[in-house]
Structures are given as structure tokens and as C-alpha cells.
Write a structure and sequence with these properties.
Elements lengths: L5 E6 L7 H11 L3 E6 L9 H8 L17 H8 L2 E7 L1 H9 L5 H8 L4 E5 L3 H4 L2 H12 L3 E2 L3 E4 L5 E5 L3 H14 L7 E6 L4 E4 L2 E3 L6 H12 L3 E6 L11 E4 L3 H11 L5 E4 L6 E3 L18 E3 L3 H8 L5 E8 L3 H11 L4 E6 L11 E2 L2 E4 L2 E5 L3 E2 H18 L6
Parallel strand pairs: 1-2, 1-3, 3-4, 4-5, 8-11, 8-13, 11-12, 13-16, 16-17
Antiparallel strand pairs: 6-7, 9-10, 14-15, 17-19, 18-21, 19-20
Helix pairs in contact: 1-2, 1-8, 3-5, 4-7, 9-13
This protein binds cytidine-5'-triphosphate (CTP).
């Protein structure tokens, strides 16, 4: 998919710059014509010669080092690029692009580039979570810049946290996804729910579940790489939501119902990956509950089924995808949910099988439509499972409305 495409690889000055060598090599092997631009700071971590050898193209560092008098390098590079990847992207590089600065070869080229831009941030976790960095990423996302989330793990600064550059294969997969699937959801509005809900008992206690939000986040990230305008409604989550999507926090089932029903009429595709509580405490104590007696019996009431509500609101042009966590009778329960909640697709997690379900980075998805099993996906990363689910949804979106109109 990248064969013959011209990719600009921007490398900025963080320790993860050494991984740019593997990334450059993979992009070149995939058939792309890679032109590397490094910041001065990046050259302190990895030499231009390394990237020149791997890309087989001259590496650009200095804006004024004009080697070919027939062109202005930063404009020429920008004009010929089909795609830009910045990996690793430091907080400074992100800020410069958000602010429109052009004070070195990379930033001036980025200002001149009209092609899609993908950013793979890498930095210390506190820097990544700094409000200024968050705001800059949101600003860039609102301009259509795409992001590959950093991973969680050992950071060079000693922290074990989020901020590690995504693995080169994940970055390549994101680029491939854009070339292969880039325009597939262009102009489409996607609504995704993710995470568990919290149902309060009193100001300090609540009922919740093990959902991490990872599956819904992977769907949101994949859809935004496919060109969709994504709104993510998140309950209680244990990981940071992906950059590049509009985030609405709705911690309880009632708040999620309100947010989702307000947004649903605008959505072309809605994926309900959230693990919404089926019951909530009947009474919420205003003050911290004091212990008394040996037993405490909680009275719970049913929450409104959001998916079912959306199924009732659904218009012919809209596609609705539900999730179901099951341990047995997968097909029977999936089909029951599909009909009862008026879904177009139901993705079942067989949560009792190794590698599937809550909290992990992998998942098993069995996907059903009104005719039964559509596809049984093998054990995949949640990112890849999200892409495959969206591929199926995209096919259905083409027909949706036509059948039912
Ligand atoms: N769901 C919802 N609102 C609820 C409960 C669930 O929208 N109050 C949605 C979830 O987002 C998910 C699907 O419904 O898409 C899961 O269906 P559900 O019937 O809740 O699954 P289980 O909890 O596994 O149901 P059951 O107890 O019937 O097995």
C-alpha cells in the first residue's frame, strides 16, 4: 500500500529518536520513498548518516543548507510528500506545529505541507499529561492531524508510565492503515463509548467493573485514522484516551445515556463498547454511609439500556454496533441482543478465553449480523481487532439505508 509513496519522516530530539532508524527501515522496506528531516536536537541522539543510509536519501537538518539550486528544499519536500510521520515527536515539536512556528527545517516544511500528518509522541508521562501539551494535541487533532498513542512501559527517565514511543510496527501499521483505509470513513461521524461506568453509593464509594476502555479507545483511534470525525464518550477508564478525538466524560450510566442520546442523531456509525452497569443503587447517600450491623443489603434498580434506546431511535442511514461479553452460547446470546436492541452488528467477547476481554491488550471478537456469524477474528491486538471490526462496519455503511429506505 505504501509502494511508490513519498513519506516525510520528521525526527525530533528525544531519546526515542534511536527507534526512528527501525521505523525508517520498515517504511523503506514497505516500498515508500522516505525523506528524513531531523531537528538539531535529534542529531544529538542519532546521526543523519544512519537515516541517510536506511532511507537512501539525503537527510535534511538545516533550512539554509540548500543543495539543489533549482528548488527551495522545504517547499519541494512538502510539495512532493504524500504523507508526513513525526516520530518521535517531542512536546516542543508538537507545540511548534500547534503554534505555527517555522524556525527550523522540520517546522517550516510542516507549515508548507498539505498532506496528512501523523504524530507519534514520546516524552515523560508528566510532560505528556501537561495541560499545555494536551491542549496542543487537541488543537492539532481538530485540524485533522492524526496521532499514534505512546505505549506504557519503562521510560528513559526512570518512570514506568505512558510516554514511550509507539513501536515502529504500530507506527507503520497506522501509516498503512491510512493508505489502505485512509479515506474510508471520510465525512462520517462516529460515536464510540468506552470504559466501565461508576454508580455511586455515597460520596466515597461506588460500584464499577473491570473495563479498561482499551477496546473502545482502539476503535476511536482506528476510526480517526480512517478519516472519521470521532466523538468518544468515556466512562471510568484505566488508560488515557487517544489524542485526536473529541472526548466527553460520562462516568455513570445515567450521564452516558444523556450524552449518547444527544449525540446519536448526528452519528453515521455508533459503536457501544462501554461496559455499562445494568443496575445502580436505588438510593445514593448524600453523606458517607456509616457502618451498622453485621450485614448491609443494597437495593439496586435497573439502568436504562442505552444500546436498546439507540436501537429504538435509529434511522435508516445509521449503523449501530453493540458489544457483548459472554462465556457460553455465544451465537444464541449475540443474536438475541442483536434483535432485542435493533443492532446491525454485535461483537462478542468470549471473556472466559485466554487473551480476550477486559483490561488486556488483546481481544477475541466474534462478529454477528442479522444472518448470524460474519467473522470469527483470531486473537489480535485490540488495535488490529478494532481495524477489522471497522472494515466490516464500513462495508455495511455503504448499504445501510439502501436496504431499509
Ligand atoms: N449496554 C447499554 N446500556 C446498558 C447496558 C448495556 O448500552 N445499561 C450496552 C453495552 O454498551 C454493550 C451491550 O449493551 O454494547 C452489552 O449488552 P448487555 O445486555 O448489557 O450485555 P451483558 O451485560 O453481557 O448482558 P446480559 O446480562 O444480558 O448478559
Amino acid at each position: 500500500m505504501m509502494q511508490g509513496k513519498t513519506i516525510l519522516l520528521g525526527v525530533t530530539g528525544g531519546i526515542a529518536a534511536y527507534k526512528a532508524a527501525a521505523l525508517c527501515s520498515r517504511l523503506t522496506q514497505a516500498g515508500a520513498n522516505v525523506h528524513v528531516i531531523m531537528t538539531e536536537a535529534a542529531t544529538k541522539f542519532i546521526t543523519p548518516l544512519t537515516l541517510q543510509t536506511l532511507s537512501r536519501n539525503a537527510v535534511h537538518v538545516d533550512t539554509f543548507d540548500e543543495r539543489d539550486p533549482s528548488v527551495v528544499s522545504h517547499i519541494d519536500l512538502a510539495d512532493h510528500a504524500d504523507f508526513v510521520v513525526i516520530a518521535p515527536a517531542t512536546a516542543n515539536a508538537i507545540a511548534k506545529l500547534a503554534g505555527g512556528f517555522g524556525d527550523d527545517m522540520l517546522s517550516t516544511t510542516l507549515l508548507a505541507a498539505t498532506c496528512p500528518i501523523l504524530i507519534a509522541p514520546a516524552m515523560n508521562v508528566h510532560m505528556y499529561e501537561h495541560p499545555a501539551v494536551v491542549r496542543n494535541m487537541e488543537l492539532l487533532a481538530s485540524r485533522g492531524v492524526m496521532f499514534v498513542e505512546p505505549g506504557t512501559g519503562q521510560l528513559a527517565c526512570g518512570y514506568v508510565a505512558k510516554g514511550r514511543l509507539a513501536e515502529p510496527e504500530d507506527i507503520v501499521a497506522a501509516v498503512e492503515q491510512w493508505f489502505g483505509r485512509g479515506g474510508l470513513l471520510k465525512g462520517k461521524k462516529l460515536l464510540v463509548t468506552a470504559g466501565g461506568t461508576i454508580e455511586r453509593l455515597d460520596p466515597v464509594r461506588y460500584l464499577t467493573n473491570d473495563s479498561s476502555g482499551k477496546m473502545g479507545f482502539a476503535i476511536a483511534e482506528a476510526a480517526s485514522l480512517m478519516g472519521a470525525e470521532v466523538t468518544l464518550v468515556a466512562g471510568r477508564v484505566s488508560v488515557k484516551p487517544p489524542a485526536g478525538v473529541r472526548l466527553i466524560e460520562a462516568p455513570s450510566a445515567a450521564e452516558m445515556l444523556e450524552a449518547v442520546t444527544a449525540l446519536f442523531p448526528e452519528a453515521d456509525l455508533t459503536v457501544k463498547a462501554a461496559a455499562v452497569a445494568d443496575y445502580r443503587p436505588l438510593a445514593v447517600s448524600e453523606h458517607k454511609m456509616k457502618k451498622s450491623g453485621d450485614k448491609l443489603i443494597l437495593e439496586l434498580e435497573r439502568t436504562t439500556d442505552i444500546l436498546q434506546t439507540l436501537g429504538e431511535m435509529k434511522q435508516p442511514h445509521q449503523l449501530l454496533v453493540g458489544f457483548a461479553a459472554e462465556t457460553e452460547n455465544l451465537e444464541q446470546y449475540a443474536m438475541d441482543k442483536l434483535w432485542r436492541k435493533n443492532c446491525d452488528l454485535v461483537a462478542v467477547n468470549p471473556v472466559n478465553r485466554p487473551g480476550a476481554g477486559f483490561n488486556g491488550d488483546t481481544n477475541l471478537l466474534f462478529i454477528y449480523d442479522s444472518n448470524g456469524l460474519v467473522e470469527e477474528l483470531p486473537l489480535l491486538s485490540k488495535r488490529e481487532a478494532a481495524r477489522r471490526l471497522l472494515d466490516i462496519a464500513v462495508e455495511r455503511l455503504k448499504d445501510v439505508g439502501r436496504d431499509r429506505a
